[in-house]
Amino acid sequence: MSETTGASYASAGVDIEAGDRAVELMKEWVKKTQRPEVAGLGGLGGFAGLFDASALKRFDRPLLASATDGVGTKVDLARKLGVYDTIGHDLVGMVVDDIVVCGAEPLFMTDYICVGKVHPERVAAIVKGIAEGCVLAGCSLVGGETAEHPGLLGADDFDVAGAGTGVVEADRVLGADRIRKGDAVIAMESSGLHSNGYSLVRHVLFDRAGMSLEQQVEEFGRTLGEELLEPTKIYSLDCLALIRTAEVHAFSHVTGGGLAANLARVVPDGLHATVDRSTWTPGAVFDLVGRAGRVERLELEKTLNMGVGMIAVVPEESVDVALATLADRGVDAWVAGEITDRGDHATGAELTGDYAK
């Protein structure tokens, strides 16, 4: 372009028409997420998403719960593999499962997708995954933003983030104040690494062990890339079902920091959670990361979920119905520990014993 030619948004690298095309492609997927409180209100393309708050009249004192999160460096693997329709599941899971921890029902989400260059089909695939995740979570995708940042990101680079809102009755908020000595700690199996610790995983498997995403791994029965892109399990509807059928004192979403650190966040002063490693066997991917990088067990446990994605703390008398409810919903769950007096323990939760073989 000559210096006498006028500059434009397109010459700066931003393609508005491609953005419009992406919006058209994603509309059918967003529509699939509509709850009754959203149907018929505005639509994709407006400046703000709308939600009919009159639905909250059924609550005596509704409290809104809000959470925001991203997917971290897992997006780099999606980019390298050219697989874009699963990363949205991860985003939804990271947001709504933080919301449900306090007992709140997720209502709606918004997303933010930042790209170096808008590839309409690629953006639509990302939104497809987010929409599918919202369906699994029982919430609506009411809006979002796709931003094109040429010069800041490479043409194939992208990142995603999201925010969600839920509602819970004030006198039904779950948390540390409900937990009592003798409560059981129920673990719910994860679908794999979920969306935490990928900086460590990538460093260990690629930089140190020299593995490739296309490499077949016998323990997985599939390629390494397929294993690493396994979507985060979304527990929100399972947790809400558990609240309806059993007495639940608290949930803990096992994300960054690992099981012990996240469980400690809901254990009150004076009490202690003990989780017995011998009650489960972590999936093969956790063993691979540990072996390939000679990562100490405690380092693994404070970085990865080690096969447990969500914890429920329930009174002893609710254990059987809680496990039955989760089993009916296809969630592999087990009693992994208990709540005891704190004693001389320095932290609110710890793992004991050795993992089952």
Automatic annotation (TrEMBL):
SUPFAM superfamilies: PurM C-terminal domain-like, PurM N-terminal domain-like. Its EC number is 6.3.3.1. It is found in: Cytoplasm. InterPro entries: PurM-like_C_dom, PurM-like_C_sf, PurM-like_N, PurM-like_N_sf, PurM_cligase. It catalyses: 2-formamido-N(1)-(5-O-phospho-beta-D-ribosyl)acetamidine + ATP = 5-amino-1-(5-phospho-beta-D-ribosyl)imidazole + ADP + phosphate + H(+). Residues 180-345 form the PurM-like C-terminal domain. GO terms for biological process: 'de novo' IMP biosynthetic process; adenine biosynthetic process. Pfam families: AIRS (PF00586), AIRS_C (PF02769). GO terms for molecular function: ATP binding; phosphoribosylamine-glycine ligase activity; phosphoribosylformylglycinamidine cyclo-ligase activity. Residues 60-168 form the PurM-like N-terminal domain. Keywords: ATP-binding, Cytoplasm, Ligase, Nucleotide-binding, Purine biosynthesis. It comes from the Bacteria. The keyword Cytoplasm applies. Pathway: Purine metabolism; IMP biosynthesis via de novo pathway; 5-amino-1-(5-phospho-D-ribosyl)imidazole from N(2)-formyl-N(1)-(5-phospho-D-ribosyl)glycinamide: step 2/2. The keyword Ligase applies. It is an enzyme of class 6 (ligase). GO terms for cellular component: cytosol. Belongs to the AIR synthase family. This is Phosphoribosylformylglycinamidine cyclo-ligase. It comes from Streptomyces alboflavus.
